[in-house]
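Fold this sequence, please.
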Amino acid sequence: MLRVVLFVLFCFYTGICGSDESKGDKVVTVDCSTLRLGQYICPDPSVDQIDTETQQYKGCTKGKIVPSEGEADVQCIAADGIICTETNNSTFTRKMPCKWTNGYSLEIALLLSVFLGMFGLDRFYLGYPGIGLAKLCTLGFMFLGQLLDIILIAAQVVGPSDGSAFVIPYYGAGVTVIRSDNETYLLPQADWHNIT
């Protein structure tokens, strides 16, 4: 107890313990591409970076493997006391995932499917002329194909033929498809037996 009191008195009279470095006002210059989660805010909330028509980041580009899984350069801000070497201030850009859209609206596709799906206009709109022509000739596969397309479009299973995501003009139900292929690693389970 006596040591604590002496330490506090020493700090008070000398001012050493109250320097800027001990308060955390120290400024560090780093490469901001190496910052970890919690050391930056992305996107920067003071900059409007969302496209109001698509609800995605502005400048979202088409993905290389899956077209709808794109990337956009987004302005981020580092935490207090961090200066980026790239810009000599606390802002920097980082690639963030986004859904690439090409102008196909979920609302229009669903309305076409409900009201004109028997004539295949929903499939023509989404870029599937072959299925659209088949639905036109068979009256929506005797209305069964129309009902199936209403469900598939509403669940966002069927999307535009170019691989883009639907434009959903509100912050609402967006579907993210999880894909698995031969490159996906499966964690071995306890009930698996050595099969050779």
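Residues 17 and 23 are 9 Å apart (CA to CA). Strands lie at 28-30, 40-41, 69-78, 82-84, 91-99, 101-105, 165-167.
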